[in-house]
Specification:
Structural class: mainly alpha
Number of helices: 9
GO molecular function, one term: endopeptidase activity
Family: Belongs to the UPF0177 family.
Number of strands: 0
Protein name: CPBP family intramembrane metalloprotease
InterPro entries: CAAX_protease (IPR052710), Rce1/LyrA-like_dom (IPR003675)
Number of domains: 1
Transmembrane segments: 39-62, 78-100, 112-135, 155-171, 177-195, 202-221
Oligomer: single chain
Strand content: under 5%
Distance between the termini: 56 Å
Shape: globular
Helix content: over 70%
Largest sheet: none
Length: 222
Amino acid sequence: MKKIISRRYFIIAFLLVIADQKFSVLVLRSDLVTGLSDFGYYLSDMMLNFLVVLFTLIAMIWSGKWQKINSRKFKGSYLFYSFLALLAFVAWNFVTFFLFPPTRNEISYQHAAPTFTGATAFLMYFFYPVIAGPIFEDMIYRGLVMTALEKGKKWGLDVLGSAILFGILHISSHGWVLTDFFVYMGGGLIFAVLFRVTKSIYWPIGLHIVYNGIGQILMLLH
């Protein structure tokens, strides 16, 4: 029975990752969104992603995986690991800044940002990139993917698979640029390792929120 659930869970996880990568893109490029305001467009994108995350949570609860990664227990060592992960991000950003050109994802956001006003500004400067986005991404690419690949844990397949899919997520809508992929895959590795050592979804989510929050503040101050 456990093998059947595990096999089905892997298939469901595979389908949910595809849905996360493609569902909102296909809908938002269709005639269904014709006439939407900027706020309506970005809110629709967020809600479509939320649906995928909702099904992700249901799948993890059904399989028993959620109960294993839902620990809210605080440990000083986990806080220390999170601080080390943040330092790793600083180092990785320093390296990629000098080695690689700006990512197309980053350039696209910077071009769109000056057009954000009113409720759209709140949604796209703060709520989506700093709060909702990190929660959505970690639920899928750490929680779902890494538990689906846990049988390959001793070979690091859970960490590697999570990082690769996280990298693909951030380049698939803006062109398959290899340097962009390495930038985001590196970040995905850091989040995945933190999830592995803490065994709790909340630590990578917390780090992701802090990291993106710092990035948004620096962009606004620039």
